[in-house]
Specification:
This protein has 195 residues and is α+β, with helices and mostly antiparallel strands. The protein has a single domain, classed as Jelly Rolls. It contains 3 helices and 10 strands, in the order αββββββββαβαβ. Strands 1, 2, 3, 5, 6, 7, 8 and 9 form an 8-stranded antiparallel β-sheet that branches. It starts with 12 loop residues before the first helix and ends in a 5-residue tail after the last strand.
Length: 195
Amino acid sequence: MGIEGKGKGTMSSREDQAQKEPLLSKAAAAEEAASRILALGPGEGEALWGDGLLATIKATKEQTDGRSSLVEILAPDGYGSGLHVHHREDEGFWILEGELTFYVGEKSIKAQPGSFLFGPKDVPHAFTVDSGPARLLFILSPAGFEDLLREVGEPARALTMPPQPEAPPSEAEMQQMAAIAAQHGVEFLEPPPGQ
């Protein structure tokens, strides 16, 4: 027995609704994804000075639904990052200009324009600029590293490297920087090998 007047091959309104829901949610997801389309040209993005570098944030957690961050870095010749480890995100490095040496885990890797390196989270890494200035992309997943850059950096007054400090940071400044980094899942370990 069924609903009177319902012919063979017709659906109840509940069945009809159930079939339409996946289509509606796919359409809503596509519309939401389209709202996050992002295109930046050269020199565009949020530019920050910090740690002797120019960091231009190209993609944020808000723009990628938390999936990844993209940061363009301009580093001077001779720059060396301290050995550190990310506990929240994996980090990729795509070299655009300059020659660098990366220290990832126990490996020392020479990199030149066109090189790509991957540093998994929880593996210590550092880099030095052997011939620069160097321009490279930091590709981080999941997103959020840009929050650390904003907290320790300052808005860049020009799309150039910041004036280099006359003296290295004091012990108190280093402790403050380490405390801020720790809040973002980054731990400073020691200077990179050879420094």
